[in-house]
Design brief:
Oligomer: single chain
Strand content: 15-25%
Radius of gyration: 17 Å
Shape: globular
Number of domains: 1
CATH topology: Rossmann fold
Number of strands: 7
Helix content: 40-55%
Length: 251
């Protein structure tokens, strides 16, 4: 399927995990991709996915840099003749309860996960608000943006925030012809959780929390993310879609 021929999609956190899987899926479906990562190594990893150099463009960017996000997306719109999609995969995690959460770590998690998503959404809208044609945003929330998780206070706050801003933006952007949805992945085999996979007992406990009996793979999450950008999802906006093997379906 070539559902993205003639379309350009920006992906943050493009160098690994769900971001890299999204880049791969988009390229396979004919998209031109702007691969954004906070490190050059991450950008290079994303660039290596493409078979043709002109199908992907890399950019090193910290999504916390608001002026930088606005400048980059305006530049890419001008250079590539338009932007049709944005996938906000950049994110970090961290532990901490209400008793022991470090304020500096809290601010960092909120800055990257929530403020960074807001920055990119605003930059995208400013760049494409006067355009026509398909335009859509997919934010990455989490199962921790649907249900609370002990000892993940800041991460949960940031992901509930992403779920909330997705719903808040939908009535604002609908009249502009821009859709915005979020995906809430469950536990997914990415570098952020790789350390948990080293303990067989922990893996067994994690698997048992999923009715499907296992954690997810980045490609499974990317498939839903990319679907939300297609015309097949043209009547969807303001949704937070759980892709979590049933983890948040029951207690």
């Amino acid at each position: 399927m070539k559902r993205f021929e003639g379309r350009t999609v920006v992906v943050t956190g493009a160098g690994s995990g769900i971001g890299a899987a999204s880049v791969k899926r988009l390229l396979a479906e004919g998209a031109t991709v702007v691969a954004v990562d906070v490190t050059q190594a991450g950008v290079d990893a994303a660039l290596s996915i493409a078979a043709e150099e002109d199908q992907i463009h890399g950019a090193v960017l910290d999504v916390c840099d608001h002026p930088g996000t606005v400048e980059l997306l305006a530049e890419m719109r001008e250079k590539l003749g338009g932007l049709n999609g944005l996938i906000n995969c950049a994110g970090i995690t961290g532990e901490g309860s209400i008793v022991d959460t470090d304020p500096e770590k809290h601010r960092k998690i909120m800055a990257v996960n929530l403020d960074g998503t807001i920055n990119m959404c605003q930059a995208f809208v400013l760049a494409v608000q006067d355009d026509s044609g398909p335009r859509a945003i997919v934010n990455i929330s989490s199962g921790a943006g649907v249900l609370g998780v002990p000892n993940r206070l800041s991460y949960v706050a940031s992901k509930f925030g992403i779920s909330g801003i997705t719903k808040s933006m939908s009535p604002e952007l609908g009249p502009l012809g821009i859709r915005v949805n979020a995906v809430a992945p469950g536990m997914t085999r990415t570098p952020l959780v790789e350390y948990m996979m080293e303990d067989p007992a922990a893996v067994a406990r994690i698997n048992a929390k999923h009715p499907i009996g296992r954690i997810g793979h980045p490609e499974e999450i990317a498939a839903v993310i990319v679907f939300l950008l297609t015309d097949d999802a043209s009547f969807m906006t303001g949704s937070v879609v759980s892709v979590d093997g049933g983890q948040t379906a029951c207690l």
